[in-house]
Amino acid sequence: MYKIVSIPGDGIGPEVVAGAVSVLRQLSKKHSFDIVIEEHAFGGASYDLHGEMLTDATLEACRNCDAVLLGAVGGPKWESLPHEYKPEAALLKIRKELELFANLRPAKVYDALLDASSLKADVVRGTDFLVFRELTGGIYFGQPRGFNENRGWNTMIYELYEVQRIARLAFETAQKRKGRVISIDKANVLEVSQFWRNVVHEVHKDFADVELSDMYVDNAAMQIVRNPKQFDVIVTSNLFGDILSDIAGMITGSLGMLPSASIGTKHALYEPIHGSAPDIAGQNKANPIATIASIAMMFEYSFHKPDIAKEIEQAIEATLAAGFRTSDIANRGDNVVSTKEMTEAIVSHIGT
Known about the structure:
Isopropylmalate Dehydrogenase, two-stranded antiparallel ribbon, alpha/beta, 2 domains, 12 helices, 10-stranded mixed beta sheet, single chain
């Protein structure tokens, strides 16, 4: 039995999470396993109900489940709140409290969506790489931090163990892929990046079968749009990973296509990388594929069922090949479908 905490969140979150839950229930029927899905509020939805973005009850539920599924959080309604009460602050808190130190973001271009990318088809065809973003250290968490009328300041800091553990995870994953890791830093300018590079190279000594190379972050941003097929596994810091993974997302055609996994030693959280898209919330227009693909990552990394993960990915590919498109990935003349219709098509390709 798998116990999953479902956190629909804000905006389009409830719609795309509903799609992922439909896929989960179809898989449970097909493969005869039990799932228990416990829903909790988070972000703006939680603030409206409880006066806080992340309650102790929600956090405790996340600590006592096999995996967390999150939709999206935030929106204009809560932007005027003090910084420490905003949905984004709650995201940082849940990552820290659950010790989710590694964020995994795949960048995969489906053949059926080559025309949806803003890049030429021959540039993106065959792109399939994975970004490992360190998630609980770096400039988002470093102290001191603050601002006044005359200056603002943040501290980018990394501890030895923080770099070691994400580097090791990246190398272990590369062993199961093409065996190449590129570590992204800014070691020519930042001392913390030189430290990062030194530690990654030290960890690499335990992975002689994996090729390691280094790349400065500005060059990496250029290379991702110039020649994305050169990458297999990228490992980088919190800030750089935040930026680069969004760049990688756009070459696939839409952020609505990309899942993510945030993994720690004991806990894991799965979510699409897109935001809450309040402009289309409640209109049955959102693309559920990123959230459904996050379920595939859940089976891969939390439940250790790579065959079921592959089954989900194949169902997505078959649905796209059949011509189904939500508006964010549609070209003129395409068959534009709703969130529910895209979900139903993927469920039908999973079969019984």
